[in-house]
From TrEMBL:
Keywords of this entry: Coiled coil, Phosphoprotein
Pfam family, one: Response_reg
Enzyme class: transferase
Name of the protein in its database record: histidine kinase
Keyword Disulfide bond attached: no
Domain Histidine kinase: from-to ranges: 192-417
Catalytic activity: ATP + protein L-histidine = ADP + protein N-phospho-L-histidine
PROSITE patterns in the cross-refs: HIS_KIN (PS50109), RESPONSE_REGULATORY (PS50110)
UniProt-listed Enzyme Commission number(s): 2.7.13.3
SUPFAM superfamilies: ATPase domain of HSP90 chaperone/DNA topoisomerase II/histidine kinase (SSF55874), CheY-like (SSF52172), Homodimeric domain of signal transducing histidine kinase (SSF47384)
Amino acid sequence: MTSLSPVSERAIVLAPMGRDGALALMMLNEAGYNGVIATGLTALCNALEEGAGLLIIAAEALRGVDLEPLLEYLHQQPAWSDLPIVLMTHHGGAEQNGSSHLSGLLGNVTFLERPFHPVTLISLVTAALRGRRRQYDARDRLIDLSESELRLQRTLETLEQQVEERTAQLRSNEEALRQSQKMEAVGQLTGGIAHDFNNMLTGIIGSLELLRRRVSRGKLDDLDSLIDLGVTSANRAAGLTHRLLAFSRRQSLDSKPVEINQLVTSMGELLQRSINESIALDMRLSDPLWTAEADPNQLESALLNLVINARDAMPNGGNLTVETSNRHLDSVFTAAYGTLQPGDYVELSVSDSGCGIPESLMGRVFDPFFTTKPIGQGTGLGLSMIYGFARQSGGHVTIHSEVGKGTTVSLFLPRFVGEMVVAEAANPARLPFANAGETVLIVEDDPAVRVLVSAVLKELGYAFVEASDANTALPIIESDQRIDLMISDVGLPGMNGRQLAEIGRQIRPELKVLFITGYAEHAAVRGGFLDPGMQLITKPFTFDLLTAKVREMIRAAASQAEATGNKVQ
């Protein structure tokens, strides 16, 4: 219990008439209590400001005087305080009724009838002071509680600040880790690209240098081998860029209905040649199998990659299984794979009984240039290409492996929904030569590509007009120049090739457009990029492919013009 000052427990006595005040103070002093006599109500209020434990007041001292100062003090007490008052009255009569009225005004009042015995007074004072001490204790507890709440609030504020600082630090650490992982991945990626491209460029540059030397010396025999060497290296470089685009999901896919069982069967001989005699190839093709929607060329490349990976995982022989099946993937399955939507899919899986992949490496198998094969035996782009191809096709790829038991890679491709359309085969006899006056507009910002395309068209007998960008091409399109076909790069500086084609078709509604691209984010899926009368080929392309596309599209334009009775402009 808190120790109180004498002033806080003293009794203030107001009894101006007779000897009641003096007698009451004497009794208090004899009992060991501190007290003081007030000469009037004003003196009592002044003494109250200094402190008091209780008031002892004669009832007649409160009649006919202004009680407002005392009542104001009592009403302004803090919530913990209820000052006890001993009101001395006379027995019976009107005074008793007046005292009851004072009790309602003053609050915590105890009546003491005169004449009173000293024991009665001391008993009332003792009880009043005991209650007063409890009020002081409540005050102290409230103060302690307020201080505790203040300390708690400060602690919470400190904790909030620490949490904010810790959160900021964690975010900073997370960003640093992400940047570190990004740089590690970029380093691994660029290192792998540099290694492979340097080998390929060596073959290309070396063969060209040897060709130049032999031609300058007049040695024109055995040039085919050097040409083949350069072409082979260039094709390997093209394959590498296609795999990189597949991993990044930026390649141009020619998605169409695919009968996967027919595709696998047609590749049977190639797959058998790709493995050795110690590996047993088992084809388990489900019948009937839904038609899938995918790029068949990319799918063939993916299947061949999976079979070669399975072969390399079984150096001492084993079993290799290629299996197809219809799968309906519900939301429970697809929820674990991000963008994969529930629905019907065709599953193509390749399983081996080889060495398996350790659990610690499973999280990295789809990373570019990551491989578990010895140095020089794998680029590390096979699975990353398959992953990118599957995701870009609207499907997914999963891998399950157990060390010592083997690995299964499953490719899920969406089921084709729609009507099957059989493509009309082009007549090779109509492809080689141009008709008189047929003209092609070439829009390409790379001078080397422009020169090569122009050379091919010239050999085929086509007239051509060149433009380095869309701004240069537009005046030609707006002129009276005959244009049977526009060949345009997609990634032109400023206005891109697709925007140029839109404007060109507003001017010439029947304009045929052949896009060429090495990388085009918005040309990633041809079905959403090409309108009727538009086609797309990817760099690097063969001249045979360019020739076939040009002849096919110009013939289509000529046929359409003949059918409508219009001339090509």
